[in-house]
């Protein structure tokens, strides 16, 4: 049967462990033109303050994304039939020059946005989200739903260095890429540097939902509030794999116990359905610290869940355009 969109390699014909490792076993394409959703790697961890290794995330997530099948079992959505999706490769990076890396990543993300595709990126450390936000925000500020153990709104590290994976969302607010009143951070926990560490973020209007509050309220209640905060205006979703408990996702740079189960993570993402998303990412998968590939598998599955949400949005938008 002729398909109008890119299709993954059929696992009934070529086993999952064979062939080229691309995201979701989709074709690797050299340009995002014609795509609805562009899957991109950002193999860069130059913003990491402690345990480096997330630069190896995209390659291993590609490998383990071969476990994903064609249909979302809850929505019954077939993402590859309702949206044109492909692996656009890794965005260019520079492992020894932080500012050049940020420029290169922004340029790569801008190519995706300019082609009219929605970027779904795999980091890389969490600083990789900043140049992607520079590309997607454009004229208008966007909202943010952030699943994370850490707020990532600190000011500077090691003297006056403004760019680390602990600072991206402070920079994004200063650069007016994000509307801080439309930011919600979910799953924040762990020891902090000082009692007032989150005061700046709260003063900007960011809604921080600590893990303790999440445990008391549950998935539905928290996501109902998150959806109200971002509304129907353009919103970016960022999923730091350290939001998940290190017993289920140990391969990450800054593990914090007391995290989400992988099942809660899936439930949280499914409740993003119906929002107006301009991009999404999964960051901080660090294969050198992984055990039995469990973090890469979790990362690939989170990516699949996000891809299905984006595909459903593409389908809705296309249906509205046709009338
Ligand atoms: Mn983070």
Automatic annotation (TrEMBL):
<dbReference type="InterPro" id="IPR006035">
    <property type="entry name" value="Ureohydrolase"/>
</dbReference>
<dbReference type="InterPro" id="IPR020855">
    <property type="entry name" value="Ureohydrolase_Mn_BS"/>
</dbReference>
<keyword id="KW-0479">Metal-binding</keyword>
<dbReference type="Pfam" id="PF00491">
    <property type="entry name" value="Arginase"/>
</dbReference>
<keyword id="KW-0464">Manganese</keyword>
<dbReference type="GO" id="GO:0008783">
    <property type="term" value="F:agmatinase activity"/>
</dbReference>
<dbReference type="GO" id="GO:0046872">
    <property type="term" value="F:metal ion binding"/>
</dbReference>
<feature type="binding site">
    <location>
        <position position="240"/>
    </location>
    <ligand>
        <name>Mn(2+) 1</name>
    </ligand>
</feature>
<feature type="binding site">
    <location>
        <position position="152"/>
    </location>
    <ligand>
        <name>Mn(2+) 1</name>
    </ligand>
</feature>
<keyword id="KW-0378">Hydrolase</keyword>
<dbReference type="GO" id="GO:0033389">
    <property type="term" value="P:putrescine biosynthetic process from arginine, via agmatine"/>
</dbReference>
<feature type="binding site">
    <location>
        <position position="150"/>
    </location>
    <ligand>
        <name>Mn(2+) 1</name>
    </ligand>
</feature>
<dbReference type="InterPro" id="IPR023696">
    <property type="entry name" value="Ureohydrolase_dom_sf"/>
</dbReference>
<feature type="binding site">
    <location>
        <position position="126"/>
    </location>
    <ligand>
        <name>Mn(2+) 2</name>
    </ligand>
</feature>
<feature type="binding site">
    <location>
        <position position="148"/>
    </location>
    <ligand>
        <name>Mn(2+) 1</name>
    </ligand>
</feature>
<dbReference type="InterPro" id="IPR005925">
    <property type="entry name" value="Agmatinase-rel"/>
</dbReference>
<feature type="binding site">
    <location>
        <position position="242"/>
    </location>
    <ligand>
        <name>Mn(2+) 1</name>
    </ligand>
</feature>
<protein>
    <submittedName>
        <fullName>Agmatinase</fullName>
        <ecNumber>3.5.3.11</ecNumber>
    </submittedName>
</protein>
<comment type="similarity">
    <text>Belongs to the arginase family. Agmatinase subfamily.</text>
</comment>
């Amino acid at each position: 049967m002729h398909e109008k969109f890119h299709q993954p390699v059929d696992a009934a014909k070529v086993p999952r462990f064979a062939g080229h490792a691309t995201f979701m076993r989709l074709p690797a394409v050299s340009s995002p033109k014609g795509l609805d959703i562009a899957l991109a790697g950002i193999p860069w961890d130059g913003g990491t303050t402690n345990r480096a290794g997330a630069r190896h995330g995209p390659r291993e997530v590609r490998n383990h994304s071969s476990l994903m099948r064609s249909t979302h079992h809850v929505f019954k959505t077939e993402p590859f039939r309702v949206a044109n999706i492909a692996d656009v490769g890794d965005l260019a990076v520079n492992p020894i020059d932080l500012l050049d890396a940020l420029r290169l990543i922004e340029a790569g993300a801008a190519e995706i946005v300019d082609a009219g595709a929605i970027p779904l990126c795999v980091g890389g450390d969490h600083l990789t989200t900043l140049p992607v936000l520079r590309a997607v925000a454009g004229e208008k500020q966007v909202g943010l739903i952030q699943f994370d153990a850490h707020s990532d709104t600190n000011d500077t590290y090691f003297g006056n260095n403004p760019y680390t994976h602990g600072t991206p969302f402070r920079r994004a607010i200063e650069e007016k890429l994000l509307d801080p009143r439309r930011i919600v951070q979910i799953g924040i926990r762990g020891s902090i540097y000082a009692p007032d560490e989150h005061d700046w973020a709260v003063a900007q209007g960011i809604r921080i939902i600590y893990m303790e509050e999440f445990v008391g309220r549950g998935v539905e209640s928290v996501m109902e509030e998150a959806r109200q905060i971002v509304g129907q205006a353009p919103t970016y979703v960022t999923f730091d794999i350290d939001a998940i408990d290190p017993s289920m996702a140990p391969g990450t740079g800054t593990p914090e116990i007391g995290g989400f189960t992988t099942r809660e993570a899936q439930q949280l993402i499914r409740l993003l359905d119906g929002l107006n998303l301009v991009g999404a990412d999964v960051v901080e998968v660090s294969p050198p610290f992984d055990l039995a590939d469990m973090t890469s598998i979790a990362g690939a599955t989170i990516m699949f869940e996000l891809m299905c949400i984006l595909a459903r949005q593409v389908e809705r938008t296309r249906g509205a355009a046709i009338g």
